[in-house]
Amino acid sequence: MLDEYSASDKVLLALDCIIFGFDKEELKILLIKRDFEPEKGKWSLIGGFLKKEENLDEAADRILKKLTGLNNVYLEQLHSYSKIDRDPVERTISVAYYALINIEEHNEKLIDQYGAKWFSISEAPGLIFDHDTMVKHAISRLRYKTSKEPVGFELLPPKFTMKQLQTLYECILDEKLDKRNFINKINAMDILVKLDEKDMSSSRKGSFLYNYDQKKYLANKAKGFDFKI
Amino acid sequence: MLDEYSASDKVLLALDCIIFGFDKEELKILLIKRDFEPEKGKWSLIGGFLKKEENLDEAADRILKKLTGLNNVYLEQLHSYSKIDRDPVERTISVAYYALINIEEHNEKLIDQYGAKWFSISEAPGLIFDHDTMVKHAISRLRYKTSKEPVGFELLPPKFTMKQLQTLYECILDEKLDKRNFINKINAMDILVKLDEKDMSSSRKGSFLYNYDQKKYLANKAKGFDFKI
DNA sequence: ATATTTAAGTGTTAAGTTTACACTTCAAAT
DNA sequence: ATTTGAAGTGTAAACTTAACACTTAAATAT
């Protein structure tokens, strides 16, 4: 440190969460209608302020739980935003997190209570402050990660079909994928467990359900999904 | 936001910079010996506090310039660190940035004045607070990026040889690379300009110098160095 | 002048990966 | 028994990556 502590200005430290969900057809984000000033009545990310007794990850967990009722959610710190007038009331730095949740599991009552709503990412309204930038960054981070290694199983229910997984990837990457190649590649990665159970809702034949196996995933990740220059 | 502004606690917002350099053989980081309490006399990253009139990127620029004399340095926000007692004096959140600089260009006098020193990353001393964690994350980020797409030209002088570039990649990735394959791959990427000039210092024959062409790089990056799942 | 030295510079082949592509199977419904 | 419609499956060609060793250029020494 080159400065003295005393010469410095304290700031409010906010957190904002980009909450992704996937409803079998589309990638969605959860937004709330602000019920206080400034920008009351406008749509925004869910957020809050860091408290004395918690670190950022804990604060993100707390904020997410408050709105969705969910614990142990996949949460990743995205970026810190610091434009001087980003919040018109007071100098506020915001640390953005993004969450991947299974859209079937969140608590509907809580969401109603906070006036929250799921929006498909293409149809989301304009957001307050710099939240649109945050969402853009989060999507681009999710897309980047997905193009480099398999991620996003947190967005699916624990049991899912290959079709669902493929559709999820198509949504995130925003491009069509070849069914046979997709299945071959996923199988080659050896990160799924095929169950003895079928989802009969999508066809007469039914389609086998799979579990994501995190242990296998981590083992294979260590061996390297990635490429070398 | 779910909380009221008033219910929140303000914090000190620090920045810490992991400054990478490359001295033709090794990847290095620039550290300073703290000349004030707490932890006076111990090695640390260069840091400072965010000021009222600047955003985080500007603060990182300012802090970096103060120590190295350099402007327009490659700087990227890494992560924010928030463990409650990470700074024993006062609750402080630190946003870490990492910088890639051409080690030949920094201002030696400034560095001496601040008691700063370059350490090879394998021989760096233990650092104060959570700075070791920050360094570990920065290296891992740099390595990850390097394994996915060509980066790090900022660590070399504007004119460099293929050998230097290869050595840099070998240092970052921590593995030996095949000379012919490396050159073929870099050439195929079409991001360098071969100059009519040789570096005669390393051999009797001399080796051609190259320029990194950022325009070409960005054009090719858009076309996609990356892979698809 | 000639020979020696030493890093720079160069290309091919085999192995592996990715892509493109279409028919069969299964279970339910009629 | 037949129809229906999504699920499930394999191969060959194109492309990419990996492994590998000799020639060239310029300076230095003789």
Describe this structure in words.
The structure is a homodimer of 229-residue chains. Chain A starts with 9 loop residues before the first strand and ends in a 6-residue tail after the last helix. In chain A, strands 1, 2, 3, 4, 5, 6 and 7 form a 7-stranded mixed beta sheet that branches. In chain A, strands 8-10-9 form a 3-stranded antiparallel beta sheet. The radius of gyration of chain A is 20 Å and the shape is elongated. The relative contact order of chain A is 0.15. Chain A folds into 2 domains: 143 residues, Nucleoside Triphosphate Pyrophosphohydrolase (Alpha-Beta Complex); 67 residues, Arc Repressor Mutant, subunit A. With 229 residues, the first copy, chain A, is α+β, with helices and mostly antiparallel strands. Chain A contains 6 helices and 10 strands. The model of chain A has no long low-confidence stretch (mean pLDDT 91). Chains A and B meet through strand 1, strand 4, helix 1, strand 5 and helix 3 of A and strand 1, strand 4, helix 1, strand 5 and helix 3 of B.
Structure at a glance:
The structure is a homodimer of 229-residue chains. Chain A has 229 residues and is an alpha+beta fold. Helix content of chain A is 31%, strand content 28%.
Secondary-structure map:
The structure is a homodimer of 229-residue chains.
Chain A (H helix, E strand, L loop, with lengths): L9 E13 L4 E7 L9 E2 L1 E4 L6 H13 L5 E8 L10 E9 L7 H6 L2 E5 L10 H18 L10 E3 H12 L5 H11 L2 E8 L7 E6 L1 H10 L6
Parallel strand pairs in A: 1-6
Antiparallel strand pairs in A: 1-2, 1-4, 2-3, 2-7, 5-6, 8-10, 9-10
Chain A binds a DNA duplex (30 and 30 nucleotides) through helix 5.
